[in-house]
Structures are given as structure tokens and as C-alpha cells.
């Protein structure tokens, strides 16, 4: 850990972490965009996670979700827990693209699940919430016979307005923006950077170098190592 970087964290009044799949892979959760096998031979994972597909082939959607998205045994790693500690100190917020619930398990406060959460399941017909264990047993709501679905943003659906507003509020308040485990290429999430406070410093922690059109500090390092070394 370079002293300068540690000082950025120490001196920050309010940090926002913008995070993605790279945070979860350290917990053994594969990035579903790179999911391979049967389903990805002729169509990409994005197609299998669209509402169009959910409606046209409910069994296929259900099977894809169960096989590629749900990892109920996964545990938070040091990246989650250090970020969660900073949020508990009232010093940080987290806006994540991840839908795996690990930030919740780590006790994160000030959290936006930008794309929703797999472990919140509801019936699309009667809108009742259902325990996710029940969903992994059957995709049909026992109460009304309607189709169950996880409360995640599918590829042809819009982002929840409250999540957008909360994200913009956190970004306006932050004087340090830290990008972790994402290359910030998927929109609309990537567009959040445009709404940062213009006085905020930006740091990116990533194995591969990232490029942006504004000045930022690139920490080319494994995120697990980085957060192991970070004193919070
Ligand atoms: Zn129902």
C-alpha cells in the first residue's frame, strides 16, 4: 500500500465505492458474463437474462438462473468486509452491480444494489414476496400459480428510480470515488461517474489498467491484496 493512497482514504470525508463482478469472484462467484457451456454457444448470457426470455421460455430462464447466478454458500471476502466497516463508520457508501447479497451479509450500510438482489424474490402475478429457498425449489408461486422471479434488473428492463436517485445523492456527497472490480464499461452503471462531485478524487483498483477521460489514480493490483493492506 502506497502511503499516498492510504492517505487519500484517511483524509476522505465521504467515500463512494463503485463495484462489480471482480469483488464477488474473490468469493468464488463466477462472472456470469463469462458463463460458458450449453447456453452460451449461440446466444450470450445477456439474452438469457432478459425479460423477453423469461416470458418466452420460463423453464430455460429458471434453469439458467439456478445454474449460473445462485451461490448461497458463498461468503463475503476482505473487499466486502473492509468496505462494510467504512460504511459502519459513517464514512462510505457502496453502489454495486453485484446481485449476490454478499454486501448485505457483510453488514454494509448505505448500500445500493443497482441491479437488484437475487435473494429478494417475488411473484410477477400477485407481487407477493417469497422466500428465495422456495424459488430454488419451484419457479411457480404456490399461492397463486404465477411466475416467481428474482428482484433483479433484467437486460431489457429499466433501473429502479430510487436506486438511481440514491446513487446520485451518494456521488454528490463523496469527495473520494473508488472503483473496484469493474471496468466501468456497462451502461447505465458506467454513466454514474458523470454525476460525481467535480471536486472528488477518483481511484481505480483493478488488475488491468482502466482508461477514463478525466484524471484519476490507477492502482494496478489485486483487490483482495489492496483491501488486506488498507487500514480502515
Ligand atoms: Zn403469486
Automatic annotation (TrEMBL):
Catalytic residues of the enzyme: 115 (proton acceptor)
Binding sites annotated in the UniProt record for Zn(2+): 123, 126, 141, 144
Keyword Zinc annotated: yes
Sorted UniProt keywords: Metal-binding, NAD, Transferase, Zinc
UniProt domain Deacetylase sirtuin-type: residue ranges: 1-232
GO molecular function, one term: histone deacetylase activity, NAD-dependent
InterPro entries: DHS-like_NAD/FAD-binding_dom, NAD-dep_sirtuin_deacylases, Sirtuin, Sirtuin_cat_small_dom_sf, Ssirtuin_cat_dom
EC number(s) recorded for this UniProt protein: 2.3.1.286
Entries under NCBIfam families matching the protein: PRK00481.1-1
Name of the featured protein: protein acetyllysine N-acetyltransferase
Protein source organism: Paucilactobacillus nenjiangensis
Amino acid at each position: 500500500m502506497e502511503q499516498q493512497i492510504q492517505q487519500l482514504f484517511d483524509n476522505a470525508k465521504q467515500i463512494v465505492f463503485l463495484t462489480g463482478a471482480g469483488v464477488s469472484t474473490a468469493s468464488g462467484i463466477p462472472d456470469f458474463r463469462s458463463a460458458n457451456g450449453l447456453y452460451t454457444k449461440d446466444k450470450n448470457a445477456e439474452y438469457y437474462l432478459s425479460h423477453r426470455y423469461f416470458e418466452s421460455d420460463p423453464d430455460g430462464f429458471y434453469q439458467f438462473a439456478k445454474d449460473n447466478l445462485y451461490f448461497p454458500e458463498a461468503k463475503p471476502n476482505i473487499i466486502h468486509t473492509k468496505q462494510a466497516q467504512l460504511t459502519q463508520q459513517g464514512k462510505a457508501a457502496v453502489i454495486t452491480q453485484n446481485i449476490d447479497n454478499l454486501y448485505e451479509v457483510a453488514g454494509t450500510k448505505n448500500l445500493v444494489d443497482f441491479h437488484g438482489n437475487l435473494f429478494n424474490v417475488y411473484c410477477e402475478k400477485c407481487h407477493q414476496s417469497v422466500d428465495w429457498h422456495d424459488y430454488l425449489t419451484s419457479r411457480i408461486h404456490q399461492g397463486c400459480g404465477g411466475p416467481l422471479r428474482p428482484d433483479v434488473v433484467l437486460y431489457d428492463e429499466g433501473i429502479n428510480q430510487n436506486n438511481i436517485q440514491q446513487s446520485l445523492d451518494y456521488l454528490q456527497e463523496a469527495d473520494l470515488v473508488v472503483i473496484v472490480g469493474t471496468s466501468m464499461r456497462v451502461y447505465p452503471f458506467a454513466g454514474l461517474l458523470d454525476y460525481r462531485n467535480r471536486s472528488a478524487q477518483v481511484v481505480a483498483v483493478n488488475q488491468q489498467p482502466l482508461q477514463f477521460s478525466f484524471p484519476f489514480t490507477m492502482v494496478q493490483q489485486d483487490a483482495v491484496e489492496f483491501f488486506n493492506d488498507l487500514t480502515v
